[in-house]
Each structure stands twice: as C-alpha cells, then as structure tokens.
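Dear V.,

Thank you for sending over the compound details. I've combined the ligand you provided, 2-acetamido-2-deoxy-beta-D-glucopyranose, with the protein sequence from our construct and run the structure prediction for the complex. I'm sharing the raw inputs here so there's no ambiguity about protonation or stereochemistry in the SMILES, which I know was a concern on your side last time.
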Amino acid sequence: MVNFSKSFSVRTKYGAMATVVFASIYVVGAYISRARKMSKEEHQGPRLTRSMSIAVLHGGQLALQRLFEYHEARADKSAVEIAECELKTHLAEQHPDYKKLQSVIGKLEMSGKEAQAVEILKNATAKARNEGRNHEAYEYEMLLVEMLIYKGDFKEALGRECLRHAEISDARRPLFKAIVHIIEGNKNEGTKYWREFNDLKEEFHCTPCMKESMEECQLHKLSTNFNEFEKVVDILKKDIIEAPLFSYPATYGEHKYAIPTHRTTCSSPVFFSDYWMVLKEIQNLCKNSSWSSSGLRYMQGKAETFAGNLSTQERIPYFVHYNDSIEFPCGFLKKFPISNSDRTDMENCKGVVVVSAIFNDHDKIRQPRGLGSKTLDNVCFFLFIDDVTLKGLVYHRLIPSKSKNYKIGAWRVVKVLSKGLYENPAMNGVIPKYLVHRLFPNSKFSIWIDAKLQLMVDPLLLIHSLVVSENADMAISKHPYYIHTMEEAMATARWQKWWDVDGLKRQMETYCENGLLPWSPSKLPYPSDVPDSALILRRHGLRSNLFSCLLFNELEAFNPRDQLAFAYVRDLMSPRLKLNMFEVEVFEQVVVEYRHNIKRGGGASGRQEVGLKGPKSKKTKRVGPDLLYVNGSCCGKCQKYLLEMWGESES
Ligand SMILES: *[C@@H]1O[C@H](CO)[C@@H](O)[C@H](O)[C@H]1NC(C)=O
Ligand SMILES: *[C@@H]1O[C@H](CO)[C@@H](O)[C@H](O)[C@H]1NC(C)=O
Ligand SMILES: *[C@@H]1O[C@H](CO)[C@@H](O)[C@H](O)[C@H]1NC(C)=O
Ligand SMILES: *[C@@H]1O[C@H](CO)[C@@H](O)[C@H](O)[C@H]1NC(C)=O
Ligand SMILES: *[C@@H]1O[C@H](CO)[C@@H](O)[C@H](O)[C@H]1NC(C)=O
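Below is the predicted structure of the protein with 2-acetamido-2-deoxy-beta-D-glucopyranose bound, written out as structure tokens.
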C-alpha cells in the first residue's frame, strides 16, 4: 500500500487522531440509566443522539469535546446548518483539520443529517483519491464509515476500503468493526475486534491517568471492560434503530412538499444559549409562585357565538385595561367541546406548552426535531384536530379507531367536536392559536406552530432566546414583504385568500376609522405592522393575554386572517405589548415550511386552500384592484391611511 500510512501513524502519536477510550463514569452512568428508562418507555422516549453513544466509544479528547458540543448542536438547528457549511469549507481546505472535521460530523449526525454528510464525504473521498491525496482520502473515508454506522448502513460501512489497511495503526478500524459486529449480534467477532482495539490503543501511550482527574482514571478501567463496551453499543444500536420520534407509514407523506429557503451564509441570525442552563432557568421561571399568570378576569356565561358576537362599538372599550375587576370577553362563551380527560391533561400542563391544530385535514402531523433530552419531560405538545382530520389519521392507521387518548410521536392529540363551533374550520383553528392561555390556564409560556411548519429547534431554546432573553411578552416573525396592514389586505383580496372581499373592505374601513395608521418610524420599536403568524411565542401574562383576547374578538368579527387585525390591536391596546418581531431569517432557521395538503377535487381553480377560504358553498368573488375603491371614489375612510402610506401626506 502507499506509504502515507507511516506518516499517518507518526501523526497520531502526537495526538492528532488519538483514539483512546476514557469515557467518564458520569457518561456511562447516564447511559445505563437511560437504557433502563428506554425499555419502559419504548419508542415514546426522546430520540437521543447516537454520536453521544459513539463518543463514549470513541474516547479521547475528541469524544469528550463532542460530548460537550452535543446539546448545543442537537438542540440548535442553526449550529447544525452552520455545520454543513463548515464541513464543506473544511473539506475544501488545503490542509484539512481532521479534529474539527470530526466534531462537525458529530453535529450533523446529531440533527439527523447523516444522509447529507454521507454524500458530502463520499464525494470528498473520491475527489481526494482521484487527485492522489491518499492520506486525505483515508481520513475522509474513516469519517464516512462513522457516518454510515450512524445512518445504519452497516454493510456499506464495513465494506469501505479504509478498514482494510491493517498496516495503519488506527484504533478506529477495529473499533468500528467491533461496533458493527456487536450491533449485528456477532458477539464473538465483536469481542475479537474489541481486543484488537484495546491492544492498538495501548500504542498511543495516551493513558488518561496522566490527566488531572481521578474520575477519568477510574473511567479508563471501566472502558477496558468489554461488558461496559457492549452495553454502550447496545444503546447506540437502539438509538440507530429507533431513531425517529415516530415513524409514519410511507403513504402518509409527512415530508412532502417542503418549501425551500435560500440561506447563503454560514452565519446564524439567532443565538441560543446552553441547553442545560436554559432548562434550569425556564424551570425556575415556571416554578415562581408569584407569577401572575393572567391578571385578566374573563367573562363567563353563554352566547350565540364563541366570542359573543360583539359589535365594533362593544369591542373597543376593552382595549384599555384599567381595572382588574373588569371581566373581559375572551371566547368560551360557548362550550369548547373536548373530552374531560383531555381538559384535565391540558390543565395539568404547568410550564411550557407547544400547540398546533389541524382542522379539515389540511396538513400533516409533523414531529418536532432537535429536541433536547429533557424536553419531552418538561414541555407539553398538544395538537387539536377535528373529525375530518381524525378520519384521515384513522385511515392512515396512525390512530386506532377505538382509542381515546391519542398520542402521535411528541403530540398529544385532542379531538374537538367542532360542529357546534364555527362553520369555517379555519375559524375553529384560531381558537387554539389565540386562546392558548385559556385552554392551558396553568401554562406559563406557549409556542403556537401552524401545522404547515415543522419545528427544528428545541422549544425551550426558542422561548429562552426569543422571549425570555428579549424580555418580551410575545415573539413573532415579521412578514417577508409587507410592513403595512393595507398591503396585506390588498394581497389577501388579490390572491383570494379570503372569499369575502366586501368583508375585508369593511374591516379595513373599520380599522382606519378607529385609529389604525400605516407603519412609520414613530411606531418603533415595533418594526412592522404585518407578522407572519405561523409561529407565535408567548409569555402568558396580562399584556399578552389581553392582546390575544382582543385579537380573537376581531377574528370573530371579521375573518380568521389574523394578520389584518394584528397592528390594529397591538397599537390601540393598553398597556402596551412588549413584542419581539424577529427577522424572517430567524423564522426560516427555526422551522421548515411545507405546503398544505392538496385537496382532491377541492376547488375548481388552481388554488385549493379550501380551509382558508371558508365554506365551499359561498361563491368566491373575484376582485380587481378595487379593494381601495368604495362606490367609485377612492378609499373611503382609509383615504388618510393610504396617503400616509404612499408618503403623500404632509407631516
Ligand atoms: C456529489 O457528486 C455527485 C456526482 O458528481 C453530484 O451530483 C452531487 O451533487 C455531489 N454532492 C455533493 C453534496 O456535493
Ligand atoms: C418571581 O417573580 C417575581 C415577579 O415577577 C420576581 O420579582 C422574582 O424575582 C421572581 N423570583 C424568582 C426566584 O425568579
Ligand atoms: C351577531 O350580531 C348581529 C347584530 O349585531 C346579528 O345580526 C347576527 O345575527 C349575530 N350573529 C349571530 C351568529 O348571533
Ligand atoms: C374597578 O371596578 C370596580 C367595579 O366596577 C369598582 O368597584 C372599583 O372601584 C374599580 N377599581 C378601580 C381601581 O378603579
Ligand atoms: C355605497 O353605495 C351604496 C348604495 O349607493 C350605499 O348603500 C353604501 O352605503 C355606499 N357605501 C359607502 C361606504 O359609502
């Protein structure tokens, strides 16, 4: 074989690629307790990282380092996206830093991006080999083998050429073989390679007992014990085989129609703190008994509609909160039809809740990704569905038809008997979207996520960086294009996102008449009047609850297109909402967006978003550019608004 092997062995002696196991007792202990836990929970348990398990095996500084990076990377999608960038960058360098590469690879694995990493590494290996850079080709291929193991492609991993070079002193060769054989149940082979690994790593003279820590020293002993090794591999095996939080039948198509985004840089627009620190901080915040979870008293009783069908004049006085004993109208003037056991579970959710809803079978259920290992124990995930959606889930056998308490992956699924509520499923969908604080009266923080989105970052990290650290009541993304409410209204009419154009007109006229102004710098620190409301993060308290109640009342009065009422409510309410309107780049970083379900035979036209357009029986009215024109003359009550928006007023 080529003589790069010699130089490589020398290299390793200086520690560049030293692979000596000295896992910590702490780590192995954590693994063992997790193993016990997993057998109880079966695959309900959180998906744990496989690289954490391999880190235990790998040993050496690299392994420890990866362990430290584990939570940062795993629960932080931005770190992972950067990792993909970094991987490509490192591979393109003249003198690749293998240590860095190794840790980047670890990050990719942690986020389930093994497939991408495998492709990138295969290309890099082939390229290096073609160009005669054999040492690099060998190193890349070793990384590739590791990634293939993570991915569960054991055969392919064992077949790679780099594992045949017995002349190279690299402890990873027998290590990887030992792992695969143990996973595949060949204990004898596994033991053989394990011994070889142990012999080989002795050559590195890198005894952990030289280190300061006694703990590491004890660990070294542990790591030389085959039974411990086998235990750890078993956990790795479980992680590989039970990787996803939930597996859907292929027909369900959870991941169809993702909408691509175009990120160009390696830098992240949002910073996330350390997972463990965040977990602790949020737990403490939620425990604080002096939390005034509401400060609002709500109107009770019965009405014709869910929110009481208040007129404009009836709604306006509630915008100013001046007396704690005033009862606010905030939905629930009709019974919200869910089962008692669901209601109890919802009331028991006392910290952070993530809420979503699928009405009219409009979306797929998508599982959150990047969850930290303690998140499912500390955050409730609730998904509201109606009968139509339920039928679809039963059809795909995601829910047994007779069962009562539905759980699909992370989501606790709650069926709403929506017949008695609103005629329009989209209107029913905004009940959990805006009245989270009433559905979960004991929760302290919430994240609303449209079912067209998949959460890619741990919800605790999101709440921490977008709400807690910003000292905000609410966090929401800016709209990618619009800053004035009127722009959104015109687009809504133009693209027929709402069928009742006269209603839109009435709504805008009402808002102009009652004080809505176009966005201008005088509204700062609010940077825009139009949000993308598919993701809403809230700290439940007086201001955000007031905002949510007022907004919901507007939705009932006009239509479920919540962007239109957003600035009107925000600007007129008092006390003022502390709002973090973040950049679209952040939004794109923390969620993946998918298209809604395509409805077969849904609408006549190409646009088939039935759920948003209201009942099919109503005729869709085409609009010209006439949203602005009332009885032939421009703009009616919005004349002043429009002049200001177009910059034509003198001010
Ligand atoms: C790898 O190489 C193939 C064939 O040359 C190419 O189509 C593909 O885009 C490459 N993938 C990456 C991630 O560079
Ligand atoms: C609890 O909340 C109160 C009021 O919001 C605050 O002043 C106090 O510092 C909090 N206590 C802890 C332990 O966070
Ligand atoms: C809502 O109130 C209006 C009058 O203010 C009335 O015409 C309408 O029928 C009411 N709607 C319902 C569903 O009660
Ligand atoms: C609040 O309203 C109640 C009932 O209307 C009244 O008795 C009370 O004095 C008011 N409190 C304040 C501070 O205005
Ligand atoms: C438009 O004209 C109709 C009939 O002439 C009238 O009933 C309606 O109130 C007018 N609308 C506005 C906003 O002036």
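A first observation: The chain has two domains: 6-242, 275-483+519-618.

Warm regards,
I. M.
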